[in-house]
Amino acid sequence: MSSSLRLWFATLLVLTQLINGALCWGKEGHYTVCKIAESYFEEETVAAVKKLLPESADGDLASVCSWPDEIKHHWQWRWTSPLHYVDTPDYRCNYEYCRDCHDTHKHQDRCVTGAIFNYTMQLMSASENSHTIVHYNLTEALMFLSHYMGDVHQPLHTGFLGDLGGNTIIVNWYHNETNLHHVWDNMIIESALETYYNSSLPRMIQALQAKLKNGWSNDVPSWKSCHFHQKACPNLYASESIDLACKYAYRNATPGTTLGDEYFLSRLPVVEKRLAQGGIRLAATLNRIFSAKPKLAGL
Ligand SMILES: [Zn+2]
């Protein structure tokens, strides 16, 4: 192979990884967050979600929770790409809305936490003002909110700007070359499915639901709570994420490192807890939105 051809293949590999790595929690992660959320919906939320879901969902929110990932590369939806994450200054290990929530053109509020506030507000406006005409697409608002609530819990979706949340940190996951962001979006979950759940996602979700009833049951009320009677608290979730990114995701994962059993076994509990927290908090947020009176306008 000529050296220029080799270079072209190497460039293609990195580009492919960057594109793959730019995805969010993989399909499994988003499905898990939404499936857990569904089992904590109050009656009003079940009814409102059912009315808002597109026909293709067949009544199941979890089935459309990856929709924002599927559309974001289409030109008419490209504006949504910055809404899946928020980057923080390198090595600071903290997050501040005003400093960090903007896109690459410095447009304020264009990040995952801004998107959660925005879509919560859209759904609230329909829930509170039964007699005014709502100009928002509430079906999309529900699907975006459900997806971004998952994303904000993935620690590297609140990662450093310099490495694009781990996307440019090339590592080996056992024998496969990938990047650190992709490890946290997909690989840890996929390895857990193979190792512990016979590759069955429903079995993994069941195990997390069992933990919510036992090991985590004392923590669940505090996970749900939102200060100052707010409907959504994404700033808290992003602060937790960058803290976990520094303590777990970036630690011992410098470029070129091979990540194996030690990394997998010590990080899996973090991933499991973030998926469970994402589900509990999505349900709590939707319950707060839809328990507002009167009921959804014109639905
Ligand atoms: Zn996403």
TrEMBL record:
<dbReference type="GO" id="GO:0004521">
    <property type="term" value="F:RNA endonuclease activity"/>
</dbReference>
<comment type="similarity">
    <text>Belongs to the nuclease type I family.</text>
</comment>
<keyword id="KW-0255">Endonuclease</keyword>
<keyword id="KW-1015">Disulfide bond</keyword>
<keyword id="KW-0378">Hydrolase</keyword>
<dbReference type="GO" id="GO:0006308">
    <property type="term" value="P:DNA catabolic process"/>
</dbReference>
<keyword id="KW-0732">Signal</keyword>
<feature type="signal peptide">
    <location>
        <begin position="1"/>
        <end position="21"/>
    </location>
</feature>
<comment type="subunit">
    <text>Monomer.</text>
</comment>
<protein>
    <recommendedName>
        <fullName>Aspergillus nuclease S1</fullName>
        <ecNumber>3.1.30.1</ecNumber>
    </recommendedName>
</protein>
<dbReference type="GO" id="GO:0046872">
    <property type="term" value="F:metal ion binding"/>
</dbReference>
<dbReference type="InterPro" id="IPR003154">
    <property type="entry name" value="S1/P1nuclease"/>
</dbReference>
<keyword id="KW-0479">Metal-binding</keyword>
<keyword id="KW-0540">Nuclease</keyword>
<dbReference type="Pfam" id="PF02265">
    <property type="entry name" value="S1-P1_nuclease"/>
</dbReference>
<dbReference type="GO" id="GO:0000014">
    <property type="term" value="F:single-stranded DNA endodeoxyribonuclease activity"/>
</dbReference>
<dbReference type="GO" id="GO:0003676">
    <property type="term" value="F:nucleic acid binding"/>
</dbReference>
<keyword id="KW-0325">Glycoprotein</keyword>
